[in-house]
Amino acid sequence: MDPDPGDKDEEDVLHGAVRMDSRKHNYRPGQKIRVAVIGGGLVGLSTAICITESLPQCSVTVISEKFSPNTTGDVAAGCLIPHPYPNTPLHQQEDWFKETFDYLFKLANSSEAGEAGIHLISGWQIFKSAPKETHPFWWQIVLGFRIMSDAELAKFSSYTFGQAFTTLKCQASQYLPWMEKRFKSNGGNLESRKVNNVWDLHGTYDVVVNCSALGSRDLFGDQSIYPVKGQVLEVNAPWIKHFIRDGHGNSYIYPGISVVTLGGTRQMDDWSCLPNAQATKGILDRCCHLEPSLCGVSVIQEKVGLRPTRSALRLEKDILIKNGQQLLVIHNYGHGGGGFSIHWGTAKTATQLLQELFPLIHNISMHSKL
Predict the structure, then answer these.
(1) What are the tens digits of pLDDT across the range 62-121?
(2) 227 by DSSP, 3-state: which?
(3) Predicted model pTM
(4) Phi-psi sector, 76: left (phi>0), alpha (psi -120 to 50), beta
(5) Residue 187 carries which DSSP code?
(6) 344, CA 20 to 30 Å: which among 48, 149, 263, 353?
């Protein structure tokens, strides 16, 4: 007896499957298309999962020097509030955010939510003066978006305008290991090593998916990507139940499952991963101004991450040529500080780009056998 179609649709949505018909493509019959994903952080893992669940004719290996808890994603607060990418079309950013929000919302309402560390979070984004656009491009995607009332704004004496809404938050310390587990349960492989030369993967893999973030400077000669150092504090403040975010600055308070994350800093071209005492004091001072009950709070941990930033997120196909040989590459990097807000949307786009390469993969394979 066939399963109920409705049950199948619900399962596909939960697992983020991209519905693609592999019969339209002439990939090598009986053989898996060998895919190497470089980068074991948020973007690399989500892309690898999406490929394994959408294109079963692919075998996927994630190769990375670092995995959780030592990735940039482990430092992020993981709250889904997009920031704009100036040179990326706004409609594309909206699509990526909606796909990510919908995917995580279903996960938050599943039995896996506790292990994955996904939950809903409500709060305020406040401004000292009203922004040019009172409703950001994503306002209809989050839940219950509205302009704050005067009574709510009375809590923030230095601010004159605010937005209230409910969004989603990922506890990175749970979400990243959960993704690793899910990827392996899909038949994926994790390989812990540094890729020093992308051509070392030629012949072993049919396609390379580049999610190496700042590593793209050396691997692919992209000097346009640079680090923006971010420092956050994890504090013990279980009474904080609402997020507070300064819409114009770097100050934010995000309550999580076990800790509250206070931030933050934005230091361009700073490669140091060491916490800075002055930055810690500045974060505490600014967050205590937003929420006076935090004065004297106990700091559990100082964390630093390097946001991989460029003028536009790079998500495209590429063909490298060397000594008459071709190496097929899909780039998916440059998410800056907004990775959590769009990671599943960009993973789906990267997966679609991979499917578009199937005919070329077949041609290269057939040519190599002649």
Answers:
(1) 999 999 999 999 999 999 999 889 899 999 999 999 999 999 999 999 999 999 999 999
(2) strand
(3) 0.90
(4) beta
(5) T
(6) 263
